[in-house]
Amino acid sequence: KELLEKHRSLFTLQWEGVTGSDHVPSQAEWEQLLTNCSAFLFYGMERFLSHVLLDSLVAMNIPKCRLMILLDLVHSKESYQRIANSGIHKNCQHVAVEGPTETAMLLSLTGVGSIIANQWFTTLRENAERLDILSESLLSMGRTTGQTVRVLQE
């Protein structure tokens, strides 16, 4: 919410979605947000695909989404328990597809233009720092996604 306030004058008036602890989005809400966006930011716990049904994502066509930023791969006791409980119903191949590389490939096949995502598990603090750098670089400085990723690497 601090970043939304910080960059309010730039592009955030056109942003829509779920922030904070409003509620857990339904599958229909995820689909609506994904299919109607030009850019998509996921900043949350565990893996992005643990929140979106794989079958729904594979069937989607989202070429309007030019950039997807996935700041995920964070564990907490609660999130790990939720994932463990939902994982009971998944087979090994399904769980393997939820990896970062596989997720990027699936999103690319659905039409997403560029994907910035974590490769390894991280902390909330590190993701918050990444989000601040991404927002500053993309929104305030007007850097390209390639230039922004380079800044993150440094």
Automatic annotation (TrEMBL):
GO BP field: axoneme assembly; cilium movement involved in cell motility
Annotated protein name in UniProt: CFA46 protein
Organism phylogeny: Eukaryota, Metazoa, Chordata, Craniata, Vertebrata
